[in-house]
Amino acid sequence: MSGYEQTCVFPALPRTQRATAFTLGGDPKGKNILYCFGQSVVIRDLENPAIADVYTQHVAKTTVAKYAPSGFYIASADESGKVRIWDTTQKEHILKYEYQPIAGAIKDIAWSPDSKRIAICGDGKEKFAHCFLWDTGSSVGELVGISKVANSIDYRATRPFRIITGGDDNTTTFYEGPPFKFKMSLAEHTRFVNCVRFSPNGERFVTVGADGKGFIYDGKTAELIGELGGGKAHDGGIYGCSWSPDSNQLITCSGDKTVKLWDMEQNSVVSTFVMGKDIEDQQLSCLWQGDYLLSVSLNGYINYLDKSNPSSPIRIVKGHNQPISSMALSEDKCTVYTADNSGRITHWDTSTGAHDVICGKGHKNKVSGMGVQGGNLITCSMDDSVRYTHVPGTEYGPDAVTMDSQPQGVGLGKDGLSVVACTNEVVVVRNGRKMFSLPVDFEVTAAGIHPNQTQVVVGGKADKKLHVYNLAGDTLVDCKTVPLKDAVTAFAFSPDGRYLSCAQTSRHITTLDVTAGYEIIQNLDAWMQNAKVTCLAWNPSSTHLASGSLDTNIIIWTLAKPFDRFELKGAHPMSQIVGVDWLSDHKLISVGIDNSIREWDIKL
Fold first, then answer.
1. Fold of the 484-604 domain
2. What is the pLDDT of residues 53-79, one digit of tens each?
3. What is the mean pLDDT of residues 345-372?
4. How far apart are CA 535 and CA 593, in angstroms?
5. Could you tell me which residues are beta bridge partners of residue 76?
6. Rounded CA gap, 317 and 335, in Å?
7. What class does CATH assign to 321-402?
8. Pairwise CA distance, residues 69 & 115, whole Å
9. What string of H, E and C letters represents the secondary structure of 264-278?
10. Structure confidence at residue 525 as a pLDDT band (50, 70, 90)
């Protein structure tokens, strides 16, 4: 009986936007952090970030997620203004309640200390903040007095309860309750207020803003105590702040590419963490979670700060915060390489999740195809170049091979041979050198090399044909064409070289018998998914074919039973699949534009 189980997931980094604050959440036990990417909420283990879970039930882009103080539930919100409250104790994350407190994107969430009330703020049409009971949705007062988008909200953890908000009207609004009523507006900031946070003991709260300033207030009365640092706290806008568990220290993060640790009793800087010199080193969020001090850079990297050594983080969690566009496996199946729309390439250990990015001068645009061959990672990009990078390694190769038209994909052979499918030509490359270019009068969609390196296949778009060329040394000689239902979107030769499967824009997968002169195998045209097929991969034994699609599903087909299909439904929920491959006959790996890499145990 067929079956499958997801064994692990390597998730996306936080999605960031320049000069825009966002929120990291943490569980009350100090074990996990959570953040948003796309339509997902990512939960990651602090000790081992490779241990992760992904909640995927939102239909709009998620914006913020927070644990209840009890630890049993998470409230997550999205751009449509919906709040979903779901269980954390079960793998299925069962939904408890869903509400829509405002009519626009929600920017921040705060739970009451007894986990019974939820306060939210954001970009509403008539109101910008709201507080309600978590189990009924009933209002708990009126959070009025806000005239523009509210960016941040917090709930005092001790009695008497208070709520504070800060936003684009340059003010901090203070409420007493419950039921909560407007008490006063605080107007010390001269630009947007990005983050407001009560200390854990409730005695003080801090506001930080785009003016580079922070202000300290009495947590009960909102009386101004002083300005953070006695003057401008950072040279750039401040996007986040977080208190230490004992309420004696605070961290702030800024667009000036630093994180600062403050002694709140002395109102002075203890340490300054300089995170870099590039634009991508701007710091947009921070969290003090137990013994961990975390910050997030504009490039999405999660930095583990070291109080004893401010010059170097203890750990940096890297990956992708732009949609993944392609993937490839190393020849020993121990490493998966992924590339995204920005040109960033990351390599992952398939057994441990350990990962890093390839550095140096690389692609400047979306990577449209990649593969590993003879110790080199070969990548092609919409920047009209092909690059050879020695692997394992952390630096791009020194030179790029420039194409005359845009590469659509790359097919790999042996002994340094590769074929690049460009829009108007097919280029033979060997060991990083252009050897032969074949101009064509059709738009090329994909190219592949037969495992015995005797033939090259090329897909045409408008003519809906498979073009077969004999490979004579490093040149291509026209051989034959095979009519198909539609343009080819992906190729996969079986490892034994007998079969070639072609995915087409018509959603069909056609398999041809190479040994019979590329004859279409009867009945296999019944292989068809619910949406465009984006990727194909044969298992090592050449008995099963896996296909990924825009419909979020993976289907496994078998030659022995042409009309049977084994489906991994919602393999990447709410996300199209861009790559599949086999680690073994019973282990599959997949990637999607949700930026998650998932491993599956397959029982055939």
1. Methylamine Dehydrogenase; Chain H (2.130.10)
2. 999 999 999 999 999 999 999 999 999
3. 92
4. 13
5. 65, 84
6. 17
7. mainly beta
8. 6
9. CCCCEEEEEEECCCC
10. low
